[in-house]
Each structure stands twice: as structure tokens, then as C-alpha cells.
Recover the amino acids of this structure.
């Protein structure tokens, strides 16, 4: 696949799936047996897993939105940097909702194979998010 | 603006070499060597720092903080994605927490963290960079956050 086509997969991952919850889209762009790497752990990250994760996100935030800030692509890899914004109105994180907007940044790296996302790595500001949610104390 | 020595503008192979050399320079813990890769008008961000870094002074201060906190830090490149003047380095850093870091007193623990750095190169120098690394993971190694 062309670098341009690979970039489109990454853009759709954010815009169609994470922002709009488009189930048909995630099945199109993500391989069923895709592998994900988050916080040093590898796991099966196919459409079913990600759909469940999105449900989890919606249990914490109203209108969670990922904004594409940057993209770099070469060969079979696409890298995107994003900013996440969501209003903390749900109890899904195990703490009382603050009602405030949470903002966090992160980077995803995708490996594309056979026209789909086959593997993905996520590095994001987990600490910043946990602090804003009140799961851990704010910086001293 | 062309490079003062007349060197050609960055292409992918040169960019790859530059980033590889940068990681090697980080591993020498020599601030002069590490800072030399950055443009005089460098602009950068680091997920663990509230303020952005400006110029060579800014990146020097940022690196100095990490080198004093983890004096034996060793960076390894896990992946490198380069497209012309844009580059992404995926790295791991391992070392011993022997100096204060982010207001955390030295724990003496070995920490390993993953990070991703995105770069914009210009005339053979780093003009911009954004560093996102696993701060929560480091705190877990130190024992300040529960394991996942």
C-alpha cells in the first residue's frame, strides 16, 4: 500500500473509529488479529477489543475527541501524535467525576500489512490523565 | 537558508544517520555533544516538563536534568521511522535513579522507560522535537505507583 493510503488508515482510526465509533470502519481498517502494545504489555487489539475499550472510554468521558496533531509515515509505518479532550462526567475510572475537561497527549505507531493496521504501539501521557481524573494526586 | 558549510538539505538517509548519532551522543552523557545536534532556534516539548524547551540552552537544561537523575542512563533505539525531514525515534532508556527527578528523591532503583520522540530536521539540525515517554511506568519502577 502507498504511504498515502497508510496515512488514511491512521486518520480513519482516529476520526472514524475513536471519534465517531464507526464499527464498520474499524473492521475495515484494523486486522482481526492485530497486536497492540500499551504500557509495555502486548495484547490482541482487533476490532472487538477496541470496541470494548471505546465503551470503557465512554464510561469516563462525554464526547471524547482525538485531534490529529502530526503525522509521519514511511514504508509500512505511520506515526501520529494526537491530543485527547474529554469531559470527565462518568464514574468509569473508579473515582467521582470531576466534571472538568481532561486533556492528554499521545503518539500511536501503526504497522500496516495487507492493507490494514496489523500492529500498533501507544505512548501517551497516562500520568497526566490519571492526575486530572483524580485517580492519583496532582503534581506536588 | 542553506547550511553554513554548504551541506545539502536533509534527506531520509542523512536523517536516519543524524538521529542514530543523536542517540549515541545521549549515551556519552556529554552535554556539549548532545546539544550540538540542535538548532539555535530549537523549539521542543517533553511530556514530563510543563515548560517548552527553547534553543540549545533549553534542550541542554532538559538533558542535564535527566543525566543528573539517572547518571548511567543508556538509550537504545527500538525503531526509527524517517520521511524526509521528519523522523520518529522509538527508544528505551535504562539506568539507576541516583539523583532527584521530578521532585522525587533518589530511590536507587533501576528504571526502564519507553519513549517516542518526533523530530523536524532543517539543514542537518534538529529544529523541533516532541518527547512523549512513559512517566507512569517510571514511577511504577520506583514504587510510587501500583503495578498495572
Amino acid at each position: 500500500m502507498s504511504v498515502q493510503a497508510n496515512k488514511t488508515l491512521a486518520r480513519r482510526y482516529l476520526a472514524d473509529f475513536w471519534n465517531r465509533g464507526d464499527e464498520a470502519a474499524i473492521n475495515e481498517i484494523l486486522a482481526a488479529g492485530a497486536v497492540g502494545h500499551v504500557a509495555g504489555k502486548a495484547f490482541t487489539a482487533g476490532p472487538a477489543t477496541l470496541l470494548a475499550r471505546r465503551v470503557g472510554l465512554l464510561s469516563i468521558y462525554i464526547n471524547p475527541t482525538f485531534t490529529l496533531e502530526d503525522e509521519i509515515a514511511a514504508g509500512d509505518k505511520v506515526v501520529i501524535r494526537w491530543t485527547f479532550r474529554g469531559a470527565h462526567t462518568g464514574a468509569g475510572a473508579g473515582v467521582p467525576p470531576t466534571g472538568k475537561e481532561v486533556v492528554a497527549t499521545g503518539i500511536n505507531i501503526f504497522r500496516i500489512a495487507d492493507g490494514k493496521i496489523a500492529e500498533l504501539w501507544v505512548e501517551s501521557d497516562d500520568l497526566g490523565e490519571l492526575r486530572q481524573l483524580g485517580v492519583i494526586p496532582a503534581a506536588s | 537558508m542553506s547550511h553554513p558549510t554548504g551541506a545539502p538539505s536533509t534527506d531520509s538517509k542523512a536523517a536516519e544517520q543524524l538521529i542514530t548519532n543523536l542517540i549515541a551522543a545521549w549515551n556519552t552523557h556529554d552535554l556539549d555533544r548532545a546539544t550540538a545536534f540542535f538548532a539555535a532556534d530549537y523549539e521542543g516539548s517533553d511530556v514530563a516538563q510543563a515548560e517548552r524547551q527553547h534553543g540549545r540552552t533549553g534542550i541542554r537544561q532538559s538533558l542535564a536534568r535527566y543525566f543528573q537523575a539517572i547518571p548511567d542512563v543508556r538509550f537504545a533505539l527500538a525503531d526509527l521511522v524517517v520521511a524526509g525531514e521528519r523522523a520518529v525515534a522509538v527508544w528505551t532508556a535504562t539506568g539507576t535513579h541516583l539523583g532527584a527527578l521530578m521532585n522525587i528523591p533518589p530511590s536507587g532503583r533501576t528504571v526502564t522507560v519507553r519513549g517516542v520522540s518526533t523530530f523536524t530536521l532543517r539543514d542537518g539540525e534538529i529544529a523541533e522535537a516532541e518527547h512523549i515517554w512513559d512517566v507512569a511506568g517510571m514511577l511504577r519502577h520506583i514504587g510510587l505507583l501500583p503495578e498495572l
User: Anything to note?
Assistant: The domain at 3-133 of chain A is CATH 3.10.450.50 (Nuclear Transport Factor 2; Chain: A,). The longest helix of chain A spans residues 3-18. The first strand of chain A starts at residue 30 and ends at 38.
